[in-house]
Amino acid sequence: MTASLTLYMLAASVLAGLGIYGVLIAGHLLRKLLALNLLGMAVLLMLITLGARGTGAPDPVTQAMVITGIIISISATSLALALLLALQRVTDETHLDAEPLPPVGEDGDAAGSR
Known about the structure:
Order of helices and strands: HHH
Largest sheet: none
Radius of gyration: 20 Å
Helix content: 55-70%
Structural class: mainly alpha
Strand content: under 5%
């Protein structure tokens, strides 16, 4: 590997680490979504780096996979944002709670409220 490929791999590793840290630590769902996008882009950067061939042209199959990955990432992000907006409209919150909600019975009441 040349120095530039090593630098790209190091940058992708740092981005992946930041993405994993954000997914594990962030409580706000939008921040978790951004961390997942960062992690996905780090994986795509690693694919591009591994697909480079010395001094010749890069592998076209790897390029096609990365372009497809970018398109899938954009569509998954837009779906997740729509779901996040719907969650915010219903619950008026976008944070994950530390305590789970009590289970809801068949009549719509909480199980322990009787």
